[in-house]
Amino acid sequence: MYSKKDIVAEAKNLGKMMAATEQVEFFKKAEAKIHENQDVREKMASLKSLQKQAVNFQSYGKERAYQMTEEKIKKVEAELDGMPIVDQFKDAQGQVNELLQMVSHAISKTVTDEIITSTGGNLLVGETGAAMRNMPNQDKEENE
């Protein structure tokens, strides 16, 4: 049996392994380029400011000012989205998220499969041994 402490230690090791992957390296480089780019920094600052204004206008019921600010936000977002450096960053984020989801899914599936097999269950049906043993037998009349 493993303790929670053992599992967390292994998870930390897995995290270190994942941090040393090609996907994470690509993300780190893309993230650094984003922060080093003056144009991106200015657009991000403008976007944050506009978003705060939009929240304030909305909370004070200033619908016209809110709508105008939302249009400005869309324009800045479109400008950012049109920049190759931002596209690379989003791609890098997607690759890291995909890796995290793959690992999460693999862990979840392995735990589920281990539970099913260790209880004498059926992987094809996806039921534990207890569930299989206590399933109503609908084919009783056919077997008699």
Automatic annotation (TrEMBL):
Superkingdom classification of source: Bacteria
One Pfam family it belongs to: Com_YlbF
Protein name in UniProt: RicAFT regulatory complex protein RicA family protein
Record-linked Gene3D superfamilies: YheA/YmcA-like (1.20.1500.10)
